[in-house]
Design goal:
Elements: H1 25-38, H2 45-50, H3 54-68, H4 71-88, H5 97-103, H6 107-139, H7 174-187, H8 194-199, H9 203-213, H10 220-240, H11 249-257, H12 262-289
Helix pairs in contact: 1-3, 3-11, 4-6, 4-10, 4-12, 6-10, 6-11, 6-12, 7-9, 10-12
Length: 293
């Protein structure tokens, strides 16, 4: 079966993610259920943006819910994470342990940053599969997997105690805002992903990490790793993942048309399915930065 081509929408479509503290009603219920099922502490920008189209998201989440609670899904995203983290080591990220210690960071503070990284290292894999499923159904057709899927009834999320706090643009001082602007310019995006806003809770760490990472972004090896992540996620959706929720290309396309033009929603799905593999690569890079030499 054909798998999705890696495409960056041009122009970047407008998206309408609503922060968790502003949602109510059905949208709030979807946010809480999504976090509970995925075992993550944040509603990804991708799923926030999808809920702007309620008929579309309602049909998508109806079918995704049992899949996301299945053993094949959990095994797939865990293997994807291991692969990307192994490949990203080839970029030779600089260890930040000694520079952070010289700045005054205690070991427990560095460990808190590691824990925050672990949250995203875990959760982004689920979101890239969700983005790939949505786009596959809208652009290619039905998933080839069977309806049978063994449930996964245990906890797969990391046991994290660090508070989940985001440094929003209006919270940040000028140096951090400049980092945000550089991230947007470097990644060619009009917004800063949740991951970076969470890392910016430690501004001096975040600036140090980004200054090292930015030199690798867009290099041939970085793009090779990102593309491999994209292709693996797309291949899992096309050929390997089951479909216990009975997701249907026709049903999802019809649901999308009830909310907006089909092309509008396809462009939004393309955006996230294009950007999340790069985000996964960058978070893996930052994870290696927190390893001792």
């Amino acid at each position: 079966m054909r798998i999705l081509e890696r495409l960056r929408p041009d122009p970047i479509p407008a998206i309408h993610p609503l922060p968790e503290y502003l949602v109510s009603g059905q949208r709030a219920a979807w946010y809480e259920d999504t976090k509970q099922v995925l075992q993550v502490p944040w509603m990804g920008v991708v799923t926030m943006a999808y809920t702007h189209y309620p008929t579309f998201f309602g049909e998508l989440w109806r079918g995704l819910r049992p899949l996301c609670q299945s053993r094949p899904f959990v095994e797939a995203f865990m293997a994807l994470r291991d692969t990307v983290e192994s490949q990203t080591a080839q970029l030779n990220p600089a260890s930040l342990i000694e520079p952070l210690a010289a700045m005054g960071y205690a070991a427990r503070e560095i460990d808190a940053i590691r824990q925050m990284n672990t949250v995203f290292s875990h959760g982004n894999q689920l979101y890239v599969l969700i983005a790939s499923i949505a786009r596959h159904l809208l652009e290619i057709g039905d998933m080839a997997g069977s309806a049978d899927a063994t449930p996964f009834n245990r906890r797969h999320a990391p046991d994290i105690t660090v508070p989940f706090m985001l440094m929003e643009y209006h919270h940040a001082d000028e140096p951090t805002r400049l980092v945000y602007e550089d991230i947007k310019a470097t990644l060619q995006l009009p917004f800063v992903n949740t991951d970076y806003r969470a890392f910016a809770r430690w501004p001096s760490y975040f600036a140090l990490a980004w200054n090292d990472l930015r030199d690798s972004v867009g290099t041939p090896l970085h793009e090779k790793i990102t593309r491999a992540c994209h292709d693996r996620a797309a291949g899992l959706v096309a050929e390997e993942l089951p479909n216990p929720g009975g997701l249907s290309s026709n049903a999802l396309r019809q649901a999308a048309k009830a909310d907006a033009s089909l092309d509008e929603i396809i462009q939004v799905c393309r955006l996230f399915q294009w950007l999340i593999p790069g985000l996964i690569t960058n978070v893996a890079y930052c994870r290696h930065q927190l390893e001792a030499v």
